[in-house]
Write a structure and sequence with these properties.
Blueprint: H1 8-34, H2 47-52, H3 58-63, H4 66-79, H5 86-89, H6 92-95, E1 110-115, H7 121-132, E2 140-146, H8 148-156, E3 163-167, E4 181-185, H9 193-206, E5 213-218, E6 220-221, H10 228-238, E7 245-246, H11 247-255, E8 260-266, E9 274-280
Parallel strand pairs: 1-2, 1-4, 2-3, 4-5, 6-7
Antiparallel strand pairs: 5-9, 8-9
Helix pairs in contact: 1-4
């Protein structure tokens, strides 16, 4: 608003919007015409590649552009829509059999792995919810995974209290085996079905049947009547050959991985994000 001082995040949001994001959107009509208006399905051949000249994906390109990557992280934080905290969508405490009386804690050591969790915002929300309900986190081991350059930024800011920071590439083998929870929040919508299948396969291989839960936190589009925000986000994702998906598309993608089964889709009308709860069946 006029007269209010701009924060660093605000400036990053404006700069990246005009100098990067908008250029990708503007390049989209001509790009779609060039591929006969088919849905882009190659993350290395998208409007982003037209405006950047990059040969690989946007994320690979960011690895060589650390300043832009930091700006993009700030852009995503500044531009995210208002919503409700993750624990208000998915009942994590209930799944851990936590009581609400003062001083209780999960009865056994529990590992929660936030895959591609950026700066750990979701883990912070979970810890705040535990504090609100007076539930101890002494038996919960939080693990934040992201690319090395992102983890380095978190460390440079002083790290995260009682959170293990772990560099990790989602297209490689998941090193944490048998965790109670694996979270993929706003990860798979960046990737086509083939690469999303690979991420899910890597995660499924680390899960314990009947014990581990995979939580996929994403927009779950209605077949008709998607919100304006969801529609606009889908248009933006076209610029990197990503996509939002309907519940049917999510189920097909997730259950296309051997052993994975959707248990429930948790929705909140006040939030643009749903949580798809997934478990691994015994082989």
């Amino acid at each position: 608003m006029r007269g209010l001082p701009a924060t660093t995040k605000d400036l990053c949001h404006v700069n990246l919007s005009f100098n990067f994001i908008n250029k990708m959107v503007q390049a989209t009509p001509d790009f779609l015409e060039s591929i006969s208006y088919r849905n882009p399905c190659d993350n290395s051949h998208a409007p982003f590649n037209v405006i950047s000249g990059a040969k690989g994906t946007m994320w690979e390109w960011f690895a060589g552009e650390p300043d832009l990557q930091r700006s993009f992280s700030a852009y995503m934080e500044a531009g995210k829509p208002p919503g409700i905290p993750f624990p208000s969508i998915f009942p994590l405490c209930d799944r851990l059999d936590c009581e609400t009386s003062e001083g209780v804690e999960p009865s056994e050591i529990t590992h929660f792995v936030d895959i591609g969790g950026a700066h750990g915002q979701v883990i912070d929300e979970i810890k705040d919810e535990f504090d609100r309900r007076k539930v101890s986190t002494a038996n919960v081991r939080f693990i934040l995974q992201d690319l090395p350059e992102t983890i380095d930024v978190v460390k440079a800011k002083g790290g995260k209290q009682n959170i293990t920071l772990m560099p990790y590439d989602i297209f490689t083998e998941q090193p944490v085996r048998g965790a109670a929870f694996y979270l993929l929040r706003h990860i798979l919508h960046d990737w086509n079905d083939e690469l999303s299948h690979k991420v899910l396969t890597n995660t499924a291989a680390a899960m314990d049947p009947g014990k581990s839960r995979l939580l996929v936190a994403e927009s779950v589009l209605l077949d008709q009547g998607a919100s304006m925000f969801e529609a606009l986000l889908d248009v933006h994702l076209i610029t990197i050959a990503g996509q939002e998906r309907t519940e049917k598309q999510w189920r097909q993608l997730i259950e296309g991985v051997k052993g994975l089964q959707v248990v429930k889709v948790w929705r909140q009308l006040e939030s643009s994000i749903s949580v798809i709860e997934v478990m691994k069946e015994a082989s």
